[in-house]
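Journal club prep, notes for RB
We'll compare a predicted complex against what the paper describes. Inputs for the 2-acetamido-2-deoxy-beta-D-glucopyranose case:
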Amino acid sequence: MPKISKGGPLSSKPYGVSAVLLARYTVILLAIALFYLNLVVAEESKPISPKSYQKLIGPGFSTNWFKTETPMKKYSEQNIKDVRDKGFKNLRLRCRADLYSYNYTATNFTWFLKNLTTVVDHCLKHKVIPIVSWIHHQAEVCATQKDHDAYVAWWTAVAKELKDRHFNLAFNLFTELGEGECGTTSNESIRSRIDKYNKWTADVVAAIRGTGGNNGQRILILGSPGKTAKDLKNIKSTIYSNDSYMMAEWHIYASGPNKKKDGQKYWTGDGTTKGRENVKNAIYEATNFTKKYKLRTYLGAWMPQDNDGGKLNENEVISFARFFVSELRRIKIPWSLNVLDRYYDTKKKAWLTGKQKIKGQKLNMSRVLDNIREVMP
Ligand SMILES: *[C@@H]1O[C@H](CO)[C@@H](O)[C@H](O)[C@H]1NC(C)=O
Ligand SMILES: *[C@@H]1O[C@H](CO)[C@@H](O)[C@H](O)[C@H]1NC(C)=O
Ligand SMILES: *[C@@H]1O[C@H](CO)[C@@H](O)[C@H](O)[C@H]1NC(C)=O
Ligand SMILES: *[C@@H]1O[C@H](CO)[C@@H](O)[C@H](O)[C@H]1NC(C)=O
Ligand SMILES: *[C@@H]1O[C@H](CO)[C@@H](O)[C@H](O)[C@H]1NC(C)=O
Ligand SMILES: *[C@@H]1O[C@H](CO)[C@@H](O)[C@H](O)[C@H]1NC(C)=O
Ligand SMILES: *[C@@H]1O[C@H](CO)[C@@H](O)[C@H](O)[C@H]1NC(C)=O
């Protein structure tokens, strides 16, 4: 067996001095490295102001992975990488709470939580901002006490599961408050009852903040009581005035512009007739609100094509898209485009390039997306 020689490099004279020096430098270098590592780590886990968060959200997409009974059926981590590589920075993870019973300890709901965590973690890993949002149309419209309690319980379960995740994760309390029938004679919907909106929101904010971890200072994005920005002023200001980590969501053109004369979403040609003015007015509601109430906003849903009537041709779709995106960029409101699947095949992990027939209108959505990317922040 070879014996370790007593005259080995470390003990021999010529090498001894430099070995000591080397050790000393190594210690110093290590200390410096640790110092900077600490700074980086400390910075990474710091709460994010709404002003910075608005910049981080940037342009992105809304998603369908959690809108089906088998979550993530068509999902793969590559989807998230591809989104980021294309220059998009956020994904709105719309979650259908109505697919589950109100027993949030049920096995299929705990699976949902695990699946959601997987996607959130992939987003964080690939520098995409994950924004989780709740949907339950029946509950929004009926809005009974039981619905309220289940809403708070849903968010409590989601918040607990994700409480230690990076501050880049945000919770968006409503996806969109809809209208509809509940079979009652009076209109009980949250949309028609601002008192209910405020109660549900205040209670859920308290519940989420109370789950601890990073949730005490995580960005929470309030829903608009009536979709668009003009209703934001109806949110009871005490819900956000003493909380430094609040924003609000609003949207318009969630199913695109159309050619309904005198409508709020009318657009034809290049928009000079009335379309551009419509866009500007819709946006004014948001910027005026922010100026007055000091709450920053995010636009959670829009699309450039006429998804109901198919009345806009490809050039009109593009001119609307370019104008809308440019205006939002000017006032620094970030957005999520409806919906990733329109532009990208999640199952095949490939961007779509063919023509698509949308309500009878043939559109090259790849060309539309190229135009959006040219003017987006
Ligand atoms: C989950 O289980 C509940 C209770 O069995 C059931 O009502 C619900 O439809 C299930 N949801 C999904 C998405 O499987
Ligand atoms: C909820 O689901 C869990 C797990 O499946 C079950 O043990 C429990 O009895 C259920 N609770 C109610 C109130 O149905
Ligand atoms: C969703 O979660 C369940 C339970 O943890 C797991 O079996 C399933 O593989 C997950 N789905 C995906 C696509 O990761
Ligand atoms: C309930 O009120 C909302 C908001 O005022 C309105 O948009 C909706 O049409 C009403 N729904 C019913 C069923 O009356
Ligand atoms: C505002 O928030 C701080 C800390 O979050 C709390 O100590 C204080 O009591 C709150 N003030 C009001 C008026 O709610
Ligand atoms: C917003 O403010 C501008 C400038 O103060 C004003 O001209 C405009 O009418 C306001 N618009 C809305 C929709 O409140
Ligand atoms: C759609 O536009 C893209 C450019 O974004 C182009 O590469 C593709 O060939 C077009 N597809 C068709 C069917 O014209």
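Talking point for the session: The chain has eleven helices and twelve strands.
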